[in-house]
Amino acid sequence: MGRKLASLVTILIISLAVLPMLGAGPSQAKPPQPFGPDSFSGQVVVQGQLALRGMQLYACIDNCEVYLSVPVRISQGGMYNQLVVSPPDRALVGHPILFYLSNEFGRIQADEVVDFEGATQIFTHNLNFKDPVPFPTATPTITPTASLPAPGDPSVTAIPRMALILGGVTLLAGSGVLLILRRRAA
């Protein structure tokens, strides 16, 4: 009986040792998820006014350093269509998308931020901008000003002497012309 009991205990121990391994197999990673572009359409409002036709709207992920979309133009009524956000890296799913409105003088950022879903869907998303649209800065016009000599300049003391000498020469020349004209008249 001792031998049968030893065999039974051995079989029981081996069975218990093998039991946890029955469900073991190669680990399987999460199956690849569908990944595609997100597309946005909607209306753009800048400080309570509809955005001007012809301005450009684009989207960025991670401050435009990682991904910058192809810009779309604002149409009549401040509308934009088919702003496609399609980064090449699947790891960007869940990262924030920032929207920018730009013209030739700069850009402003929208108040709204959405996460990139990579869901191959079209979203209607109205955008609001609290900052004003960039405009050219005025270049100051330079008006010429009179140039005065600096205090202590030796030419300052020479000016009155030169004026007296020039005045004396003019007085003598004028007197000479008058004398010549009187002699010819007589």
Task: Give a verbal description of the structure.
This protein is of the alpha+beta class and 186 residues long. 26% of the residues lie in helices and 28% in strands. The protein is built from 2 helices and 10 strands. It has helices at residues 2-18, 154-185; strands at residues 38-46, 49-50, 56-61, 67-68, 72-73, 79-85, 96-103, 106-115, 122-124, 127-129. The strands form 2 sheets. Strands 1, 2, 6, 9 and 10 form a 5-stranded mixed sheet that branches. Strands 3, 4, 5, 7 and 8 form a 5-stranded antiparallel sheet that branches. The chain is elongated and about 175 Å long.
Question: Could you name the key traits of this structure?
Answer:
2 helices; 5-stranded mixed sheet; 28% strand; 5-stranded antiparallel sheet; elongated; 186 residues; alpha+beta; Immunoglobulin-like
State mean pLDDT (0 to 100 scale): 83
**What would CATH call the architecture of the domain at 38-129?**
Sandwich
What is the C-level CATH assignment of the domain at 38-129?
A: Mainly Beta
Count the beta strands: 10
Largest sheet: 5 strands, mixed
How would you classify the helix and strand content by structural class? alpha+beta
Order of helices and strands: HEEEEEEEEEEH
Radius of gyration: 44 Å
Low-pLDDT residue intervals, each spanning 5 or more residues: none
